[in-house]
Amino acid sequence: MRESIHTWAKNTLGATGDFDVLPLIGSKEFVAWLPTFLESRKVLFPEIAYPTYNVGAMMAKAISIPVDFDASQWPVADLAWVNTPSNPTGRVHTRAELLEAISYSRKNKTVLACDECYLEFGYDKTPFSILSLTEGNNQNILAVHSLSKRSSLAGYRAGFVIGDSDLIAKIREVRKHAGMMVALPIQLAMIAALSDSTHVQEQRDRYNARREALTPALIRHGFRIDESHAGLYIWCTRDEDSWESVDWLANLGILATPGSFYGSSGAKHIRVALTATDAQINQALARLNQTAS
Ligand SMILES: Cc1ncc(COP(=O)(O)O)c(C=O)c1O
């Protein structure tokens, strides 16, 4: 399995130089426990973000600081999270932003963990891995991946992290004594999933077709689409409190997530997931189309 991850990291992410890989019981447990493994005191995370970055900092009793994308403005910290493509916004980091984050990490000796679990689901932008930009020097760099998204294996709990060999050796030492091993049948499923990319292409096309079906209907009802360049979500707003938008959709029997779940900067947006079945998406579309704006 480790060999499969290694090969995939080179071929798909463009990883170079010395790096190691570590299987995870889904990537969420790693996001939650990393600050504890590293005994981090100060953790940076994106101001609109998947909540577990902050939860992990809280579990480690670290100070957590939400930050913007520009790493040249980040305060000194011992762990910094980047998420590209972003959940919930679908924003894709630029090359310049990732390079700035790498130089921040090198300057401050900060562990830079890049959560890339939606990497293969580009829409109108093609996301790329932080590991393709390190020029083979992966010191203090970690890229986090998940087969929950890539291969729709959420129920299997199958993720992995790739990066700095010394850091991964240190983390592995703690994890193996804490019982965080991936079960053998899951390891075999991971090998099978990583050795095929056709299913990923098919799933990407499916998500993007759902995105293209829902987007005009949301716009017709006054929503503005922001970011949403990749990933499994549409991030949109009617410049009203997110709960008002959620209520409006709920009255049509459509479930969306209030952006406030991802930080106060998201309080006027909603996240519409493209993970429902095609039949459900079509039903939502029919309800939107039958409703007056
Ligand atoms: C940004 C991000 N990271 C990590 C995860 C965790 O995924 P899993 O634990 O299924 O690998 C999620 C799940 O929604 C996510 O959105």
TrEMBL record:
Keywords annotated in UniProt: Aminotransferase, Transferase
Record InterPro entries: Aminotransferase_I/II_large (IPR004839), LL-DAP_aminotransferase (IPR050881), NHTrfase_class1_PyrdxlP-BS (IPR004838), OxyQ (IPR019880), PyrdxlP-dep_Trfase (IPR015424), PyrdxlP-dep_Trfase_major (IPR015421), PyrdxlP-dep_Trfase_small (IPR015422)
One Pfam family it belongs to: Aminotran_1_2
Keyword Transmembrane: no
Matching CDD domains: AAT_like
Any one Gene Ontology molecular-function term assigned to this protein's record: pyridoxal phosphate binding
SUPFAM superfamilies named among the record's database cross-references: PLP-dependent transferases
Necessary cofactors: pyridoxal 5'-phosphate
Domain Aminotransferase class I/classII large: residue ranges: 20-288
Name of the protein this chain belongs to: Unannotated protein
Organism: freshwater metagenome
